[in-house]
Amino acid sequence: MTSTDSPARGDNATGEARPVSWLDSSGSPARSAARRGRQRRLPHLVAGVLLVVLCVGGAVWWMTSTQDRVPVLALAKPVPLGHVLTPADLRSIDVFAAPGVALIPADRAASVLGRPMATSLGAGTLLTPDAVGAAAIPAVGRAVVAVVVKPGQAPPELAAGAPVTVVVTAATAAGTSATGQAPGTSWRATVVGVTPAGTDQTTVVSLEIDTTAASQLAQVPAGQLALVMQPAGGER
């Protein structure tokens, strides 16, 4: 009786055994298959080693960086010249202790509470011993000048301590302002105070600026200036 069964996998049509592709003639795994297995495992080994190195390096970096940081006092909100410091004005922040930088340690907050500010500073500014005490504005070579701005000429968020750029925006028919300052002329300054002028919606902004620029700025008529806020800690 003739069998109608199909040849088994690994057998040829005559029923003779035939080596499977991943086995050699003796029935052992072929070398090429073993090599492929090792090649597949190698990337996983490398990835595992790299992961361990990164974890160890990250832990070492975190430990050394946190050990170099010290808690110091910073301002929690903008404070104007003459403002008497309260606990609500201060917060502690961890920073790298750079040599030569005079900062106030957080555990010495009592030494500045109840004392007036010697200058106007913005929120987040690190507090220094010189910033507290007798008024330090204007410093030598600096002056305080008042400018009047209308709605839209200064950001509503403007506050004491904010660094700004004062820009001439208007001009006469001759192409310059009444004082000879061309549109686009600018000066860097620091806000000392912001006071609403009255019912006409104008605002008086006191600016600390160098003496020469103060004389030029004082001659620019109201309505021909705009104040642009700059990042805290920027150059004057």
Shape: extended
* Span between termini: 106 Å
Proportion of residues in β-strands: 15-25%
Order of helices and strands: HEEEEEEHE
Structural category is alpha+beta
Q: Could you tell me the radius of gyration in angstroms? A: 37 Å
Low-confidence stretches: 172-177
Q: Can you describe what's shown?
A:
The chain has 236 residues and is α+β, with helices and mostly antiparallel strands. Among the domains are: 70-131, Alpha-Beta Complex (Type Iii Antifreeze Protein Isoform Hplc 12); 142-229, no CATH class. The protein has two helices and seven strands, in the order αββββββαβ. The protein has a five-stranded antiparallel beta sheet with strand order 3-6-5-4-7. It starts with 30 loop residues before the first helix and ends in a 7-residue tail after the last strand. The relative contact order is 0.12. Mean pLDDT is 75; it is low at 172-177.
Task: Briefly summarize what is shown.
With 236 residues, this protein is an alpha+beta fold. Helices cover 19% and strands 22% of the residues.
List the topology elements.
Elements: H1 31-68, E1 69-75, E2 90-96, E3 142-149, E4 163-168, E5 186-196, E6 203-210, H2 211-218, E7 225-229
Antiparallel strand pairs: 1-2, 3-6, 4-5, 4-7, 5-6
